[in-house]
Automatic annotation (TrEMBL), chains A, B:
One of its GO terms (molecular function) is pantoate-beta-alanine ligase activity. Catalyzes the condensation of pantoate with beta-alanine in an ATP-dependent reaction via a pantoyl-adenylate intermediate. The active site is at H37 (proton donor). Its main location: cytoplasm. Homodimer. ATP binds at residues 30-37, 147-150, 176, 184-187. Gene3D superfamilies: HUPs, Pantoate-beta-alanine ligase, C-terminal domain. The gene is panC. It is found in: Cytoplasm. Keywords: ATP-binding, Cytoplasm, Ligase, Nucleotide-binding, Pantothenate biosynthesis. The reaction proceeds by a bi uni uni bi ping pong mechanism. This is Pantothenate synthetase. It catalyses: (R)-pantoate + beta-alanine + ATP = (R)-pantothenate + AMP + diphosphate + H(+).
Length: 289, 289
């Protein structure tokens, strides 16, 4: 496995690979790799000649009161994980190389952003699309892989690729879960023992909401309220949001006909956890984009 | 010469060329091709395996009171001109294909934009960087060619490429002029006979300003004032601006030491003409970026 730490070297290497006609799969990450990431790498490994993984904790996508400084980092472990997952190139750029000041160009997200996590994380998706525009141009992927755990991110990246005509296919990958259903996340390490015991109720709440649809409930407001009640009854978490929207457009709906997302974010003492399910009007789970 | 009219076909073709290891030169234009464009094509033809030229009158870079509707168009003549200049692929996309609504992502230009033409053309450079981001992703060029007549555009595109790490080299090409010095432009057709006779004084005014520097004048304000006086004395045009700034940063200067640009825009009855010279502290003309 090749470890590359400068943009210039990564660009040269990617350009060489493209000229050789190699199909490049790319998994952008903020490191602290867990099974969710390994799922992305595994799928990308199968579908491409070359697998590039990036590790970059992107300051631009953290708000001023968010956890950029204390976001978990463990480069040595990440390198071993990447090697174990047959990564060809691990790209670990420096902040100063990625964001030499001053910036002249900024990207803004006009749709799909001001709901769910985007509502309470101002500037978050601006940071996401900015760093991804850069990483796409640096690594020149044919396919990029994102976890459906952050389904809004998948929707926004889909919009970025379509709007700016990137020659890239986005591959959404199903959320990887613990045995009790809790979605894997780098932030789960921040949960207390009691919070960890309760946290599986987030996924249970979403499954409960989905069951209401399967059983014939079509009113989004009723479903959202039932899911909120479930979370409040079964955890000490504070609900940031529970929303039911069209997917991937992320617009409000009055009835469940097309593909929708039921998503939630819950604050615990030191961690904010997110999860979602995507399904159609009959309640069949599907993750088309 | 291949004429391609859909984004999808252009992307497939460009991707195939890249896999073959072909070096792609790209000349984006708004059509109505003149000798200025031919200069760009000629240079791109020499320096690359494949020459792609696009024709797209980009609505996003025209202000509400600008000349989008009556911008000159002559596709049949442009096709002949492209053929004559040994273009390999002429890409002529449709507006509806380039901008399917609604847009989800917008690009903003934070620096280099709020001076010169950017000051009076709000949103112009946003439109330029948006369409170029798209065209770059569609045509996958190794090198892109821009005329120095729009030196601010060269500076902004340079910022776009650097900030978003496009794997592209920008090649600035010297302004092509009529025998009397008037910079070639698609908009020159709008000049009356009398205006056309006077219009060469725009370039003469810039040369006059440059001579002041060669003769030892270092004060930007004095030079700007002398150039304004020259234009007002020798044309019936209305000055939009005369500015002397660092280049390509386009920041104000108090003395002429590093590379600078002396630029002007002059309104005539039905046409707004721009021109500039770029030179260093000794008054030597140079167009590094």
């Amino acid at each position: 496995m090749k470890i590359i730490r400068t943009i210039q070297e990564m660009k040269q290497h990617a350009s060489k690979l493209k000229k050789q006609g190699q199909a490049i799969g790319f998994v952008p990450t903020m490191g602290y790799l867990h099974e969710g990431h390994q799922q992305l790498m595994s799928k990308a490994r199968q579908e491409n000649d070359i697998l590039i993984v990036s590790i970059f904790v992107n300051p631009l996508q953290f708000g001023p009161n968010e956890d950029f400084e204390r976001y978990p980092r463990d480069e040595q472990r990440d390198i071993k994980t990447a090697e174990y997952n047959q990564v060809d190139v691990l790209f670990i750029p420096e902040k100063a190389d990625m964001y030499p000041s001053p910036r002249s160009i900024s990207l803004h997200v006009l749709r799909r952003s001001n709901v769910l996590c985007g509502r309470s994380r101002e500037g978050h998706f601006e940071g996401v699309v900015t760093v991804l525009s850069k990483l796409f141009n640096i690594t020149l992927p044919d396919k990029v892989y994102f976890g459906m755990k952050d389904a809004q991110q998948v929707a926004v990246v889909d919009a970025l690729i379509n709007d700016l005509n990137y020659p890239i296919e986005i591959i959404p990958v199903s959320t990887v879960r613990e045995l009790d259903g809790l979605a894997k996340s780098s932030r789960n390490v921040y949960l207390s023992d009691q919070e960890r015991d309760e946290a599986n109720n987030i996924y249970k709440a979403l499954q409960f909401g989905l069951k209401l649809v399967v059983d014939g409930e079509k009113n989004p407001d009723n479903i959202v309220q039932e899911v909120k009640d479930f979370i409040l009854s079964n955890t000490h978490g504070k609900i940031d949001y529970v929303e039911l929207l069209s997917y991937p457009e992320l617009t409000p709906i009055t009835s469940i006909n097309e593909q929708v997302i039921l998503a939630t974010a819950v604050h615990f003492e030191r961690a904010r956890l997110i999860d979602n399910v995507v399904f159609n009007g009959q309640g069949s789970v599907s993750e088309r984009i």
